[in-house]
Amino acid sequence: MAALTLQFPEVIDAIFKGWTALQLAVAHSFGGTHSKAKAEWFVEATEQWMKENSDVDAYELEDFLAEIMSAEFNTVVDDNSLVEVATKICKIYRLICQGEYEQVNNIVSTLQKSAPVTSSQKQQVDSDEDDDDDDMDVANENVMNHINALELNRTANESSPSASENTNSDQSNGTSQSNDNSQSNEEDGWINVTKGGKPKK
Fold it and tell me: How much is the average pLDDT of 137-152?
C-alpha cells in the first residue's frame, strides 16, 4: 500500500500531462483562472476515487474523468482519449497492486520523458506567429517599395521642366522670334511678359 501511495500519483500525473484534451483546457484556461490548480487537484481526486472504489473497470473511470472535464474545465471530450487515459490508469493501478513496481517505474519514466502536450502546442503557436510575422514583413516591404517608387516618380516630375518653363526657355533662346511675337502682340494690343524681364510698353 505504501508503494501505491508513492507511485500512483506520479502515474496519474504523467498520464494527464500527455493528455491533449486536458492540457489544452489548462493552457487556454477553460476552467477559469485556476485551471492549473484544478489540474493538480484532478490528479488527487482521481487517485482518491480509485482507492475508494474496488475492482474499477476502465469504462467506470472514463465516466468519472468525463464528468470532471465537463464540470471543472467546461470541456466535452469526444476524441476517444478518455478510453485511452482510463485504460492506462486502470492497468498501471493493477500492476501496482500486484507488486510490479519495477515495471511501473519503467512506465512512469517513459511517460515523463514524453514531450508535454503544452510544449508541442506552444511550439506550433510560436511557429504560426513567426509565419505571420514573416508575412507581415513581406507586406510591409512591398508597401515601402511602392512608397519609394512613388517618391522617385514625384521627385522626377519635380526636377523635370514644366511646359511653361520650356516655353519661357524657348522664348529666351529665340530672341528674334520673341521680338517678332512682341511686335505682333503690341499691334494686337497685348503686352508680352518674358521670364525675368520687364513688360514692353
Answer: 57
